[in-house]
């Protein structure tokens, strides 16, 4: 198997096989990353494709520094963030149009997105890479280009924040139920 340096060099020379190998090498990781950010398989597939299109469009200017996957994650992350900004209002409209048996799933999705939105970007990235991408702490450290102790600290901090946020959500829900009675 070719390493990234050789693949990029061959892609810059126009080798179609190198493009195929490169996409095959990273497709699943980027797809999974996109899915865990937007929670929609179709959009995740579109964002994955768009990630590679954007990478290839900038290929002539790209200088290999050993962090190709990190660069792909950055592109994918920006696409997902843009999508989430655009769909905030649409989620509320969707709830009204959905059948009753799907309402609970959408409410859970909205709750998860609301909780994730309340987290700082660096905490959300560590959480996503650790739990959804199932990266090891050292891999997260390499991906985010931060030290391992900082990754451990952020993971510990985000776990505490999640407990607080989810506890707060449950508390708020119980208050609402009490007011209805």
Commentary on this structure:
The chain is an all-alpha fold. The chain folds into two domains: 1-100, Rna Polymerase Sigma Factor, Chain: A (Orthogonal Bundle); 119-181, Orthogonal Bundle (Arc Repressor Mutant, subunit A), CATH 1.10.10. 83% of the residues lie in helices and 0% in strands. The chain has helices spanning 4-12, 16-38, 41-57, 68-97, 100-118, 121-132, 137-144, 148-180. Mean pLDDT is 78; it is low at 169-181.
Task: Put the structure in a nutshell.
Belongs to the sigma-70 factor family. ECF subfamily. The chain has 181 residues and is mainly alpha-helical.
| Structural class determined from secondary elements | mainly alpha
Mean pLDDT across all residues, rounded? 78
For the CA atoms, what is the radius of gyration?
Answer: 19 Å
Strand content bin: under 5%
Element-level helix/strand string: HHHHHHHH
CATH-derived topology of the largest domain? Rna Polymerase Sigma Factor, Chain: A
Strand tally is 0
Large-scale geometry: globular
CATH superfamily of the largest domain: RNA polymerase sigma factor, region 2, helix turn helix motif
Distance between the termini: 64 Å
Q: Any guess at the CATH architecture of the largest domain?
A: Orthogonal Bundle
Question: For this structure, what is the CATH class of the largest domain?
Answer: Mainly Alpha
The number of domains: 2
- The helix count comes to 8
Sketch the major β-sheet: none
Can you tell me the residue ranges where pLDDT is under 50 for at least 5 consecutive residues? 169-181
Helix content estimate = over 70%
